[in-house]
Design goal:
CATH topology of the largest domain: Rossmann fold
Helix content: 55-70%
Number of helices: 10
Strand order of the largest sheet: 2-1-3-4-5-6
CATH superfamily of the largest domain: Response regulator
Shape: elongated
CATH class of the largest domain: Alpha Beta
Strand content: 5-15%
Structural class: alpha/beta
Largest sheet: 6 strands, parallel
Order of helices and strands: EHEHEHEHEHEHHHHH
CATH architecture of the largest domain: 3-Layer(aba) Sandwich
Radius of gyration: 22 Å
Number of domains: 2
Distance between the termini: 38 Å
Length: about 210
C-alpha cells in the first residue's frame, strides 16, 4: 500500500486525486492540505510514502515545504505536481530533495507511473521536463568543460585513466609541479572542492565523456 498526501490549494485538483486514487487498490490517500504549513503538519502526523505537492502554495511555497519534509521525514518522497515548468524552480526543488517533477498537463498519462516510481525511491520526470533538464545540464557541462585549457583536459583525462601525477608528467614531457598546477587549476575551474580526490575526478571525467566509462 502506497500512502499519499496531496497538497494543492485548488479543490478541483484534490477532488480529482481522490476520485482517481480510489480506483487503485494499492493507493491510500491519507490526507490533503491546501497550504504549506498545513502540509508539513499533516505529513508529520501521517508519515505518508509520497507527498504530491504543488509548487505554488499560500504562505510558504513548495520549495520550503520540500526542504522541511526532507528534514523531518527522510523516508517520505516528494513529487512536485505543478502547472508550470521553470528551470530554476526545478533545480531548486530537486536540490531540496524532491524525487520527481510532473506537469499537471501530463497527469493523465504520467501521474500513476510517477507516484509508483517515487514511492520506490526512483526519480521521475515527464518527457518535457526531462528534455529541458538534460538540455540545461548539457549547456552547464559544456560551459564548465570549455573553461579548461587543452592541457588541463589532458591532465584530468589521464588522472581518470589511472595515471599518477608523476606518470602524467613523464607522458606529457612536463615537470611534476606543472602537472599539479594544471590539476589544481582544472579543479578550481570545475568548481570542485580543492580537496577533490582522483576518484572524484574520474567520476567527473566519465560523466563529461573525457574518458570512456
Amino acid at each position: 500500500m502506497i500512502r499519499i498526501l496531496v497538497v494543492d490549494d485548488h479543490d478541483v485538483v484534490r477532488t480529482g486525486f481522490r476520485a482517481l486514487l480510489e480506483t487503485y487498490p494499492q493507493f491510500e490517500m491519507v490526507g490533503e492540505a491546501v497550504e504549506g504549513n498545513e502540509a508539513i503538519t499533516i505529513a508529520t502526523e501521517t508519515k505518508p510514502d509520497v507527498v504530491v505537492l504543488d509548487y505554488y502554495l499560500p504562505l510558504i511555497n513548495g520549495l520550503e515545504v520540500t526542504r522541511e519534509l526532507r528534514s523531518r521525514l527522510p523516508g517520505t518522497e516528494v513529487l512536485i505536481f505543478t502547472m508550470h515548468y521553470s528551470e530554476q524552480f526545478a533545480q531548486d526543488v530537486l536540490s531540496a530533495g524532491a524525487r520527481g517533477y510532473l506537469l499537471k498537463s501530463d497527469a493523465t498519462r504520467d501521474l500513476i507511473p510517477a507516484i509508483n516510481a517515487v514511492a520506490a525511491h526512483r526519480p521521475y520526470f515527464t518527457d518535457r521536463v526531462a528534455d529541458r533538464l538534460m538540455s540545461q545540464l548539457r549547456v552547464t557541462q559544456h560551459r564548465h568543460c570549455s573553461k579548461l585549457t587543452n592541457r588541463e583536459h589532458e591532465v584530468v583525462a589521464m588522472v581518470a585513466e589511472g595515471y599518477s601525477n608523476k606518470e602524467i608528467a613523464e607522458a606529457l614531457g612536463i615537470h611534476l609541479p606543472t602537472v599539479e598546477t594544471h590539476r589544481a587549476s582544472a579543479i578550481r575551474k570545475l568548481r570542485l572542492p580543492s580537496s577533490t580526490s582522483s576518484a572524484a575526478l574520474v567520476r567527473y571525467a566519465v560523466r563529461n565523456k573525457l574518458v570512456e566509462a
